[in-house]
Amino acid sequence: MNSRRSLTSATAATLCFVICICTTTIVVTNGELQRFIEPAKSDGSVSFITIGDWGRRGDFNQSIVAYQMGRVGEKIGLDFVVSTGDNFYDNGLFSEYDPNFKESFSDIYTAPSLQKQWYSVLGNHDYRGDSEAQLSSVLREIDSRWICLRSFVVDAELVEIFFVDTTPFVKEYYTEEDGHTYDWRAVPSRNAYVKSLLRDLQASLKRSKATWKIVVGHHAMRSIGHHGDTKELIEELLPIMKENGVDLYMNGHDHCLEHISDEDSPIQFLTSGAGSKAWRGDVDPTTNNPKSVRFYYDGQGFMSARFTPSDAEIVFYNVFGEVLHKWVTSKQLLHSSV
């Protein structure tokens, strides 16, 4: 067994234990987010695909996007898949036995290269159903690739990915004006939930020794698409990211592909929410700042990411598998550009 799949000894002051799901080791540490261990390849690199807003039983070109993901996954030596939420439309799953899970996930992402772990967070549409269903171990018995939690960490040696449950941040969802019903069973108090989550995230980020730090959430921090910026994340989450040297923020929510640079930090905002239904022409020209918006595409597609100890490569693809935008940077260049 790869040594990365084994737990090293914890400090005496830290409570720690290990659970195994399939071939992935979970490390649970008191006061921090649950951690999954993903070993890097022998050359030290890590490659994954990011996809969001996808689960429509193959409709709205979901199946075609899935096919292209399989081709790209084979090419890049895919290690795992990151899902940015809104995994099942229109209203999540109604239970862990909902056939939508198989019809929108297992039956769609069938390429050999995609038979890796899928690490997923919940989106606002997922909260409109039985949000606990997507977290259930029953789904992993149906398809062992599926791992979905509210907030957690994937530790891939030189890359650590911090998944954050962003739906509870958005105050609009707690009002009748939103027009939807949300499953808030695990969120009895918005302020207490967010405060606890940010405290655990802060602890996990400070502990990280990874070369590259990535935060993943469903909602956009910065976007020129339909939903635009999420002010609660800018006010409450972004300062913690800046304080702890986060490099990238990846999200879905807006059904498009985007790359936006922060204006006063090295952080790059990457939207991959075009896994099925996309919104053509739905862009806010008043927020389209040419100094920070590096790329925007209002069609279907996905994103790949490859990291080495020195470099990062982000590539956006359309529904035909064509490269729309490629961004390559070194760690040194990224942090000297601000």
Main sheet: strand order? 1-2-3-8-9-10-11-13-12-14
Beta-strand content bin:
25-35%
- Please count the beta strands (DSSP E, at least 2 residues each): 17
Helix content: 10-25%
Describe the structure.
The strands form 2 sheets. A 10-stranded mixed sheet has the order 1-2-3-8-9-10-11-13-12-14, covered by helices on one side. It starts with 15 loop residues before the first strand and ends with a helix. The chain is 21% helix and 27% strand. The longest helix has 18 residues. The N terminus is likely disordered. It is globular, with a radius of gyration of 18 Å. It is built from 9 helices and 17 strands.
What are the salient characteristics of this protein?
7-stranded mixed β-sheet; disordered N terminus; globular; 17 strands; 338 residues; 10-stranded mixed β-sheet; single chain; 9 helices; alpha/beta
Structural topology:
Blueprint: E1 16-21, E2 24-29, E3 35-37, E4 46-51, H1 62-76, E5 80-83, H2 100-106, E6 118-120, H3 124-127, H4 131-134, H5 137-142, E7 146-148, E8 152-156, E9 159-164, H6 190-207, E10 212-217, H7 231-236, H8 238-243, E11 248-251, E12 257-261, E13 268-272, E14 293-297, E15 301-307, E16 311-318, E17 323-330, H9 331-336
Parallel strand pairs: 3-8, 4-5, 5-6, 6-7, 9-10, 10-11, 11-13
Antiparallel strand pairs: 1-2, 2-3, 4-15, 8-9, 12-13, 12-14, 15-16, 16-17
